[in-house]
Structure to design on (683 residues):
C-alpha cells in the first residue's frame, strides 16, 4: 500500500487522510481472476463509519504542478434532469470539504463484470470548436500550444500505447461540430487515425454543444454486445468506450433528449470517459459548470473524467490515465500512480 | 408421431459417448426416414433409419452403409422391446447397434494376428478399458485397410486453466488416432486430437509434438508413452500457469491502483502507469512462455517523448532475478 510522507496513522496502522479519501484496497485488486468490479453507487467511501461521497472537482490552477491529493472527487448526482439553467452559485464550491450527499440512484446498481482485458472499441469524440485552436497551454520554458495541437500529440501517444497493450483494440473518430459526425469508422490501424487527425478540417466558432446528437449518432451506429451467458464470468466480445474531448470554456453542454444516452448507458459494456481542456477557471467563463455537467454524465460511477488547463504536462498525464481498461481499472477515486522514494518503501 | 421422432433423435447428440459424441441428422423428404451420421473410430458412419409414419409402434428398419454388418435382430433388445412412448427408444437402439458394430470390427481384427495382438495387448496390459478404444477396418474387395484405432487417453485435465468463451468448449479430452495402412504395414501414423480447452491451455495445436510411431514398435509401448507425455505436459502447463498468475496477482496487490491493463486469460502481461517526481511513464511487464525460467521483460515507455514516430521506450531485462523466488517476492524485488 502506498503511504505518503507525513500522514498520520490510526492505531491500527491505517493512514488518516485529511481528505478522507478511501484508503482501503478495493477488494477486486487482490483476487484478479475471480474478481469482479462492483459498480457501486458513489456514496461508498467508508472511513470511521462516515459515509461520504466525493464530488469530482477541477483542480485549482497550479503552474508548479498539480496537488495530487485534491484533484478528483466524485460528483453526487442529485440532479438528473439536465437543463441549461445555471446551477446556483452556492451549490458547489471547489474547496468544499466532504459533503454528505445523497447516493446516486443508479439503474446499474451492483452489476458485476469480469475483469478481463477484452478488446475495446474506442470512439474519440473530438471537439471542433475554434477555441481548440486558441493558444492557451504554456510550458515553463515558454513554449505555447493550442489545445488541438496538444490533444493530437497526446492522442498519438494514446493510440500507440493502447495498441501496444492489445492489438485488438479498435478506434473510431467523430468530429463535434453543431452536430456530431463520423470521420473514421472503427479500425485497428492506428496510423490511419493519426493521419485523419493530421488532415482534419478547420475548427468552427461554436457555442453550446448538442449532446443529444452525439449520443444519437453513437446509438445508431455502434452496436453493443448482447449480454449472454453468465455475465459475471464471460467476457464480452468487446466493450465500447467514448473518449469525449471537449474544449469550450463557455459553451455549455445541452442535453435535452437523453433517450439514446440512456439506452447506451444501460449496457454494462458501454463506458463514457472525458477529457476537458479549457481556459483557466475564472468568473468570466463557465468552466466549472461545464465540468460538473460532464461529471453528471457519469451515472454509473465507472467513468474517468479529467480536465486540464494551461499545463501541457498535465494534459499528457491525464490522457495516459485514460489508457486504463474500463473493466480492469480502479474507480477514478481510487487511482494512485505515485511511486515513492526507496527510503519510504517498506514491505506491506 | 412424426414430430416425436425428431424429438427423440435430437436427444442423441451423445450417441457416440466415448469419443467426440455428436451425430447429425438429415431427413429425407418423407419425414420418417432419416440418416444418422455417427463419428466412430475416426470415421463417420452413416446409418439410415426407416420408420413408418402410418404405424409408429413398429420398430424402425436400418440400412447400414457397411453391408457386411448385419446383426441379428433378436439380439438387439431395445429393438425387440421397441416402445414408441419412451423418448429414448431410438437412442437405446442406436447405442446397442453401435456396440454390435464395435464387436463386429473387433472380430474383423482376429483374422490378422498382428492387429489382433495390438488390440488385445492394449486391453490386457494397459489401463485402457474397452470403452476407451474403437477400431475400424476399411474393407474393399481386394484388401483390408486402412485400419483405425481410436484411443481416448485418460489424462487428468482437471486443473487446466479455464477457457472463457461463449460457446461451451465441452469436455476436456485427448484422443489418439492411429492409422495402419494395412494389417502388416510398418508405416503407422499417429495423430493427436485435443479438445478446445486443452489446446488453448497448451497455447495452440502446434505446441505439442508427439513422437513418431517407431517402426517395429507396437501400441502397447507407444500409447503409454504418449499418455505420459501428455500428462507431463499438463502438469507442467498448470504449474507455469499458476506461477504467472501468482506473479500478476502479486503485482496487482502492490500496484493495483496504477494498473492499465493485464492479461486476464493467460496472465502473460501487465502494464502500469507510474509517476515518479511529477514524471509519468508506462511500464509494461511481459512474461515469456518459459517463465519462470526466463525473467519477465520490463519495458519503460515515455508518454511525452517520441522516437521514430513512436513513443520512446527502453527495455530492461538484465536485473537480479531468480526463478526460485515466489510470485510475491519477485514483485517486491522488481519494485
Amino acid at each position: 500500500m502506498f503511504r505518503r510522507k507525513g500522514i498520520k496513522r490510526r492505531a491500527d496502522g491505517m493512514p488518516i487522510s485529511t481528505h478522507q479519501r478511501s484508503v482501503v484496497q478495493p477488494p477486486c485488486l487482490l483476487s484478479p481472476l475471480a474478481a469482479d468490479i462492483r459498480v457501486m453507487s458513489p456514496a461508498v467511501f467508508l472511513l470511521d463509519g462516515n459515509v461520504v461521497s466525493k464530488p469530482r472537482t477541477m483542480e485549482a490552477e497550479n503552474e508548479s504542478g498539480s496537488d495530487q491529493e485534491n484533484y478528483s472527487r466524485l460528483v453526487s448526482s442529485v440532479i438528473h434532469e439536465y437543463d441549461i439553467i445555471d446551477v446556483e452559485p452556492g451549490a458547489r464550491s471547489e474547496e468544499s470539504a466532504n459533503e454528505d450527499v445523497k447516493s446516486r440512484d443508479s439503474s446499474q446498481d451492483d452489476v458485476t463484470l469480469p475483469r478481463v482485458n477484452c478488446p475495446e472499441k474506442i470512439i474519440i469524440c473530438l471537439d471542433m470548436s475554434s477555441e481548440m485552436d486558441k493558444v492557451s497551454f504554456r510550458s515553463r520554458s515558454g513554449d505555447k500550444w493550442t489545445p488541438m495541437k496538444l490533444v493530437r500529440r497526446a492522442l498519438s501517444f494514446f493510440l500507440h500505447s493502447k495498441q501496444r497493450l492489445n492489438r485488438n483494440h479498435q478506434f473510431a473518430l467523430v468530429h463535434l461540430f453543431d452536430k456530431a459526425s463520423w470521420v473514421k469508422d472503427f479500425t485497428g490501424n492506428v496510423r490511419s487515425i493519426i493521419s485523419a487527425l493530421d488532415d482534419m478540417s478547420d475548427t468552427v466558432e461554436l457555442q453550446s454543444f448538442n449532446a443529444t446528437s452525439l449520443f444519437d449518432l453513437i446509438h445508431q451506429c455502434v452496436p453493443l454486445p448482447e449480454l449472454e451467458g453468465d455475465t459475471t464470468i464471460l467476457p464480452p466480445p468487446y466493450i465500447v468506450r467514448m473518449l469525449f474531448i471537449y474544449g469550450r470554456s463557455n459553451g455549455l453542454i445541452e442535453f435535452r433528449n437523453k433517450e439514446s444516452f440512456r439506452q447506451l448507458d444501460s449496457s454494462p459494456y458501454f463506458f463514457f470517459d472525458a477529457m476537458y481542456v479549457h481556459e483557466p477557471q475564472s468568473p468570466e467563463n463557465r468552466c466549472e459548470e461545464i465540468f460538473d455537467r460532464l461529471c453528471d454524465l457519469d451515472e454509473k460511477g465507472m467513468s474517468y473524467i479529467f480536465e486540464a488547463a494551461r499545463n501541457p504536462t498535465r494534459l499528457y498525464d491525464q490522457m495516459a490515465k485514460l489508457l486504463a481498461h474500463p473493466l480492469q481499472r480502479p474507480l477514478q477515486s481510487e487511482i494512485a500512480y505515485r511511486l515513492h522514494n526507496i527510503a519510504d518503501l517498506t514491505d506491506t | 408421431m412424426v414430430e416425436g421422432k425428431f424429438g427423440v433423435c435430437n436427444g442423441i447428440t451423445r450417441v457416440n459417448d466415448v469419443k467426440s459424441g455428436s451425430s447429425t441428422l438429415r431427413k429425407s423428404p418423407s419425414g420418417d426416414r432419416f440418416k444418422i451420421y455417427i463419428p466412430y473410430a475416426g470415421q463417420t458412419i452413416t446409418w439410415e433409419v426407416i420408420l413408418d409414419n402410418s404405424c409408429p409402434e413398429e420398430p424402425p428398419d436400418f440400412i447400414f452403409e457397411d453391408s457386411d454388418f448385419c446383426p441379428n435382430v433378436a439380439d438387439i433388445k431395445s429393438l425387440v422391446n421397441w416402445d414408441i412412448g419412451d423418448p429414448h427408444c431410438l437412442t437405446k437402439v442406436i447405442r446397442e447397434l453401435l456396440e454390435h458394430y464395435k464387436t463386429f470390427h473387433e472380430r474383423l481384427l482376429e483374422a490378422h494376428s498382428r492387429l489382433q495382438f495390438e488390440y488385445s495387448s492394449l486391453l490386457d496390459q494397459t489401463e485402457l478399458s474397452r470403452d476407451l478404444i474403437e477400431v475400424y477396418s476399411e474393407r474393399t474387395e481386394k484388401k483390408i485397410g486402412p485400419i483405425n484405432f481410436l484411443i481416448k487417453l485418460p489424462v487428468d485435465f482437471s486443473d487446466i486453466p479455464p477457457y472463457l468463451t461463449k460457446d461451451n468448449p465441452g469436455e476436456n479430452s485427448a484422443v489418439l488416432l492411429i492409422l495402419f495402412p494395412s494389417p502388416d504395414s510398418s508405416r503407422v501414423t499417429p495423430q493427436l486430437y485435443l479438445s478446445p480447452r486443452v489446446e488453448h491451455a497448451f497455447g495452440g495445436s502446434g505446441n505439442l509434438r508427439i513422437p513418431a510411431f517407431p517402426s517395429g514398435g507396437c501400441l502397447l509401448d507407444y500409447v503409454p508413452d504418449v499418455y505420459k507425455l501428455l500428462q507431463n505436459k499438463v502438469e507442467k502447463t498448470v504449474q507455469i500457469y499458476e506461477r504467472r498468475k501468482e506473479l500478476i496477482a502479486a503485482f496487482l496487490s502492490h500496484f493495483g491502483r496504477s494498473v492499465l491493463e493485464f492479461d486476464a486469460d493467460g496472465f502473460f502481461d501487465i502494464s502500469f502507469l507510474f509517476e515518479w517526481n511529477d514524471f509519468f511513464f508506462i511500464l509494461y511487464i511481459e512474461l515469456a512462455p518459459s517463465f519462470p525460467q526466463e525473467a519477465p521483460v520490463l519495458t519503460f515507455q515515455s508518454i511525452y517523448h517520441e522516437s521514430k514516430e513512436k513513443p520512446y521506450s527502453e527495455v530492461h531485462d538484465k536485473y537480479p532475478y531468480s526463478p526460485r523466488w515466489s510470485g510475491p517476492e519477485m514483485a517486491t524485488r522488481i519494485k
